[in-house]
Each structure stands twice: as C-alpha cells, then as structure tokens.
Design a protein that fits this description.
Chain A: Pfam families: PhaG_MnhG_YufB. The complex is a heterodimer. Chain A is about 80% helix and about 0% strand. By secondary structure, chain A is mostly helical. By secondary structure, chain B is mainly α. Classes of the chains: A mainly alpha, B mainly alpha. Chains A and B meet through helix 1, helix 2 and helix 3 of A and helix 1, helix 2 and helix 3 of B.
Amino acid sequence: MTPVEWAIVALALLGAFFGAVAAIGIVRMPDIYTRAHAASKSDTLGAVLTIAAVALALESNLSTVKSVFLIVFMFITNPTAAHAIARAAQEQGIEPWTKEGDG
Amino acid sequence: MVEFSTALLAIAAAFVLFAVVALYRVFVGPTIHDRVIAVNVAGTNTVIAIALVAAAFEESTFLDVALVYALLNFLLSIAFSKFNVEHGGVL
C-alpha cells in the first residue's frame, strides 16, 4: 500500500474507534441524557473522520465534493437531532440520573 | 490495491457491527427516547458503512445513497421528537 492509502486506513480506523466508543456508550450509560451525550459527540466525530477518509480515497473531484457535503451535513444534523430528542425527553418530565437516586 | 479495499470493507463491517450493538438499546431501552437515540446511531453507522463501501468499490454514485440516507435519518429524529412532545406518549 502507498503512504496515502496508509493515511486513509489510519483515518478510517480512528473513526471506527470513535464509533465503538459511541456503541459502548449507548449500551452502558445509565439514562437518556448521558446516552444522547455519547451518541452525539463520539458518533459525530467518528462519522466525520471516516468520511474524511472516504473523501481522500475517492479521487475524482465530484465525489470529493459530495463527501465534503456529507461531512458538513453530519456535523450540523447529528448534534441537532440528539438535542431535539433530549429536549423532548426533558419536556416530558424525565428526570436526569443522579448517584443518590439510582444507587 | 486488493488489500486496501479489503481493509476499507473490514472497517465498514465493523461499523455494521456497532449498528447491531446499538440495536440492543432499541430492544431494551426503558423510554421511547432511548430507542430513538439508538436508531439514530444505527442510521449514522449505516451511512458511514455505505460511504466506506463506495470508497472500497470506487463507486462514487453510492455517495448519493449515503446523502439521502443521512437526510432521512435526520428527518426521522426531528419529526419523531416533535410528534412525541405534541401528542405525548402515543407510541
């Protein structure tokens, strides 16, 4: 593999690490707000890193532009969706998890 | 060149595995919001897997599929959070 291909695989592996962090956080965190935190932050960073790797790998101009669109779109919409869901949970009166309340 | 596309496909398979792990929270999540967050994460991982497959097969048209899927994923989360607040506890 060429150095550029090594860089692409390294970026994608770093993104996969953050995807794993998001999956573990979704399963292991105690309540909806901490799960939304894990999902929005780690999954957004993993998506942006991995699609940056895709933008490096696809060499034509148009597909690089499409990848950059996808990166910008992910960067805006993923935290917005998590914020909207956490706000809906808060408006329905779901209490945040505390150490005293839940052992 | 062969081993490069194999590495990209392996990372795409890892993202599919993370999406399946997030589906655990869809099954057992105590509130409906946990389920929606987990579906959102699974959809994001699907978008990443489609983009990686596009890079591995050098098929740039797959990126259009990924863009549309990301759009639908965002629309699902926003529409669901609005719907669930206005008509609380329907689902």
